[in-house]
Amino acid sequence: MLTVPFGGAPIFTRSRALRPTGKVLPEHARSHNRALVLQTLYTAGARSRADVARETGLTRVTVSDLVADLIAEGLVVELGQREDARPGKPATLIDVARDAFQIIGIDLSEHQRFLGAVVDLEGRIVSRAEVPRDDATGEQAVALVADLVGSLLTTTTIPVLGIGVGSPGVVDPHGVVRSAPNLGWTDVALQALLADEFDLPVHVANDANVAVLAEHGSTHQDDLLLVKIGHGVGAGLIIGGRPVIGGGFAAGEIGHVEVGTDGGPRCVCGRDGCLEAWLAVPRLTAQLDELDLEAPDAASARDRILAEAGRRLGIVLAPVVGALNLSEVVLSGPADLLDGALHEATVDTLRTRTMAENNRDLRLRLTEQAQDIVLRGAAVMVLSGQLGVS
Amino acid sequence: MLTVPFGGAPIFTRSRALRPTGKVLPEHARSHNRALVLQTLYTAGARSRADVARETGLTRVTVSDLVADLIAEGLVVELGQREDARPGKPATLIDVARDAFQIIGIDLSEHQRFLGAVVDLEGRIVSRAEVPRDDATGEQAVALVADLVGSLLTTTTIPVLGIGVGSPGVVDPHGVVRSAPNLGWTDVALQALLADEFDLPVHVANDANVAVLAEHGSTHQDDLLLVKIGHGVGAGLIIGGRPVIGGGFAAGEIGHVEVGTDGGPRCVCGRDGCLEAWLAVPRLTAQLDELDLEAPDAASARDRILAEAGRRLGIVLAPVVGALNLSEVVLSGPADLLDGALHEATVDTLRTRTMAENNRDLRLRLTEQAQDIVLRGAAVMVLSGQLGVS
DNA sequence: CTAGTTTGTTCGTAAGCTTTACTAACCAAT
DNA sequence: ATTGGTTAGTAAAGCTTACGAACAAACTAG
Question: Which residue of A has its CA nearest to B43?
Answer without folding.
Answer: A19
